[in-house]
Amino acid sequence: MSMTQRRLLPSTAALAAFDSVARLGSFSAAADELSLTQGAISRQIAILEEQLGVRLFHRNGRGVVLTETGKTYAEGVAEVVRKIRLLSLEAMSNSAGNRLSLAILPTFGTRWLMPRIPDFVAKNPKVIINFATRIRRFDFEAEEIDAAIHIGQPDWPGADCQFLMHEDVIPVASPEFLARNPVLRPEDMINLPRVEMASRPGAWEHWFGSLGVDIKSSGGMRFEQFSNVAQACIAGLGVALMPVFLIEAELASGQLVKAYDHRVRSQSAYYLVRPLAKVSYPPVKAFSDWLIGQVRTFEAERQQ
Asked: What integer pLDDT is reported at residue 7 of this predicted model?
């Protein structure tokens, strides 16, 4: 290794000391956090500054303050130190190859997936799942996610999209809202306040179009999550198109009722999305096989 290469690879002890001082703003606080002496922390910072050939801190009577170069360096070092600690923890626990980082949709995850997850855990006890909530597309590599459940089209770049299921939507509202705003035909809803999903801007046009009724977007109240749309309808704020299988509880309890009994297949569908590099990763494969089985059982039950 050349001298230049060695200068570009500071010791982890120096980086840990720098990260601690940068966060806490003093050598003494960093010494307490790392169970070292203040002198040891000072020496590590001096070694790092000499190795890099730059000043990272301004010293004053009240402590230390990052220089502009130090601020930039601290942002990157914090992530490096965090990553090293995480990798070390995984190596120590010998579980790195058994972790599944899964991105889920909020309402789908809560209402459909979570009640079924105990079955996966029982059948795959060595797989540890880390859940993250994502509504829109994201960078799998940057966010360290292994797979995602996605609603939309099978067009995620650099990923395999495994079809899961379609969804049928119906217009629903609270009984009180419909008592004030009777709906006898589809056209009766044209001028009613319509609550919409931000990710489904064309849903109402599609629903009305299936009945031969031409409308334009209402520009009404919009939410990012179906749970919020449902609550808005229960509160009497309007009528909304909702996936039938996600509001079974509200329909059963009478909190929501059909505004007009006409269901339409949504233009979007549910997919299990896996980066191409992760398709054969054992936890992803185990989850994929299990999920497809759950979907088949669910679809069979819906058709009974």
From this structure: 65
Is the distance from CB of 64 to CB of 26 less than 8 angstroms?
Answer: yes
Helix (H, G, I), strand (E, B) or coil at 238: coil
CB count, 10 Å around CB of 164? 21
Q: What is the DSSP letter of 223?
A: E
Rg (CA), the chain: 27
Give CA–CA dist 172/202, Å, rounded.
17
- 55-83 in b/e burial notation, b at 16+ Cβ within 10 A? ebbeeeeeebebbeebeebbeebeeebee
CA distance 31 to 21: 9
Say if strands 128-133 and 99-104 run parallel, antiparallel, or are unpaired. Answer: parallel
Type of residue at 62: R
Q: Which two tokens stand for residue 230?
A: 């449902």
pLDDT (tens digit per residue) in 79-124 = 888 888 877 766 665 555 689 999 999 889 999 999 999 999 999 9
Give kind and range of the element (H or E) at residue 176. helix 175-180
The residue whose two tokens read 């058994």 is 98
Q: Give the chain's domains with CATH numbers.
A: 3-93 (1.10.10.10), 96-165+269-302 (3.40.190.10), 167-267 (3.40.190.10)
Q: Give the percent of the chain with pLDDT over 70.
A: 93
Among candidate residues 260, 263, 261, the one with its CA nearest the CA of residue 245: 263
Q: pLDDT tier at 226 (50, 70, 90 boundaries)?
A: confident
Q: Answer yes or no: are the C-beta atoms of 202 and 267 closer than 8 Å.
A: yes
Residues sharing a CB contact under 8 Å with residue 163, sequence separation 6 or more, in sequence order = 154, 269, 270, 271
Cβ neighbours of residue 158 closer than 8 Å, sequence gap 6 or more: 140, 275, 276
| Three-state DSSP state, 198 | coil
Q: pTM for this one? A: 0.66
